Amino acid sequence: MQNKYYIETFGCQMNVHESEKIAGMLEALGYSPAATRDDANVIVFNTCCIRDTAEQKISGNIGELKALKREDKSRIVVIAGCMTQQKGAAEALAAKFPFIDIVLGTANLYELPAKIAELKERRARHRGKVVAISYDDNPPIDESVPVARTSYPNAWVNITYGCNNFCTYCIVPYVRGRERSREPEAIIDEIRSLLAEGYKEITLLGQNVDSYGSDRSDGVGFAELLRRIAALPGKFRLRFMTSHPKDLSEEVVSIIAETPNFCKNIHLPVQAGSDRILKAMNRKYDRAAYLGLIDKIRKYMPECGLTTDIMVGFPGETEEDFLDTVDLVKRVRYQNAFTFVYSPRRGTVAATMPDQIPYAVKRDRITRLIAVQNAITEELSGEFTGKTYEVLVEDAPKPGMLCGRTDSGRLVNFAGDRSLVGQFVDIRITGNKASALYGEIVDNG
Ligand code: 5AD
Ligand code: SF4
Questions:
Q1: What positions does the entry give for [4Fe-4S] cluster 1 binding (predicted)?
Q2: Which of 12, 160, 207 to mutate to test the pocket of ligand 2 (most atoms within 8 A of CB)?
Q3: N or C: which end of the chain has fewer CB within 10 A?
Q4: Tens digits of per-residue pLDDT, 296-308?
């Protein structure tokens, strides 16, 4: 067993992309990917702490590494990502799981190669582990980290890091620091070279893409960044996440509408449908403003695929507040919604609010909400049948079967050869099962 790595990723797309950077750094050190944990001599867990369920699951998984480490003591176990960055968490992890060799924070991920070198040196002198957490809220952006991409034909591109919004339930601003925007030239150069390499879809990543540039003095905001991307030649798809309803401007909506390369697909987390709860969440918009924004998007792009994040059981949420959320979901008719049970996060404002909601009530509310959304998703899915859509072939999940998405973001399954991955094909939708669409390739002769 020589020089192989295995990365286990938990959480959001930001982490998926950061794992590509971890892989890039390890490959630059001469490691190659292992098929399983057992085959690897560097095992990295890239962690998430957005909800307690995520942390529980990760702790269980880390526990499983004990046996692997016992089998081969030369193995290097690295825990990285958001979970490590909470106050006191790095020390707690190292104490609970003594076989962990390196704990690395989100702010200094780029130090991984140096920390591996330090560990090897320490081992030679029979010294222990390396804990490297930086609590700098404004760490520098390191543009030199190599990236080993794993999501062809899509390529993730960071535009911002961190978040300034401090929604009262959310741990992200505490574990990822203040919002920092990359230079527009660095972003454009990266996208230009990705397109030259053959990537067909670019997904811009940021905690709040709409506030891109507000920490910089060159006056380039999200709209201007989109204009510069729109000017790049060739056929490709552009997506971005996540938008914040308080900052998504009409200008941005109009640019998306008029640029053929930009997908008509917006993820716009609403979180709640009650003004009282939105205020307590510090979301800085109300129900009327959100619904107004949805109307605006639909005016510019009637076919736009809209998705959202919704939380139930925020402290103080009454049955009436919850019914406001259900009502909003019925009004908007989202293509899809990611629904969550509120989970108190230590250090956030909401965790200390009175009237925490009992788990049974949260469970009941999320079950009812999911049923409402599922019915909507199924109804909307039915409307696709018989129509033809351009689909970018993204993957071959099993032999002879392909999947890809419509411009509006709907996942479609169809038969075809894996050589089509990365190509645009026309698909006629033949039916659906719940939210999954099924179709067949249209032979354009
Ligand atoms: N509990 C439950 N869900 C949360 N989210 C963020 N913080 C919490 C929390 N403490 C959800 C929000 C966000 C999504 C990424 O995760 O809906 O949009
Ligand atoms: Fe969390 Fe709100 Fe920032 Fe999103 S905008 S990462 S929900 S604090």
A1: 12, 48, 82
A2: 207
A3: C
A4: 999 999 999 999 9
Residues with CB under 6 A from ligand 1: 50-51, 169-170, 269, 271, 309, 311, 340, 342-343, 345
AA letter at 211:
S
Among 163, 159, 172, smallest CA distance to 81 is for 172
Tokens of 324: 């406001």
Task: Ligand 1, residue 171: give the atom nearest the CA.
Answer: 7
Considering only CA atoms, which of 213, 236, 310, 239 is closest in space to residue 271?
Answer: 310
Q: What is the DSSP letter of 146?
A: -
Shortest-distance Cα residue to atom 18 of ligand 1: 309
Indicate which ligand has the atom closest to the C-alpha of 343: 1
Instruction: With beta carbons less than 8 A apart as the criterion, state whether 407 and 390 touch.
Output: yes
* pLDDT average, residue stretch 79-96: 93
Task: Decide if 265 contacts 237 (C-beta within 8 A).
Answer: no
Instruction: Please give the single-letter amino acid code of residue 309.
Output: D
Residue pointed to by tokens 């698909």 = 427
Beta strand 154-158 with 76-81 is: unpaired
Q: Could you tell me which of 189, 192, 258, 260 has the C-alpha nearest to residue 223?
A: 258
CA proximity to 28, closest of 132, 147, 143, 120:
147
Beta-ladder partners of 131: 103
Q: Could you read off the pLDDT of 10-65 as tens digits, one per residue?
A: 999 999 999 999 999 999 999 999 999 999 999 999 999 999 999 999 999 999 99
For the segment 284-293, the average pLDDT, to the nearest whole number, is 98
pLDDT single digits (tens) 271-281: 999 999 999 99
**Ligand 1 centroid to 170 CA: how many Å?**
6
pTM of the model: 0.96
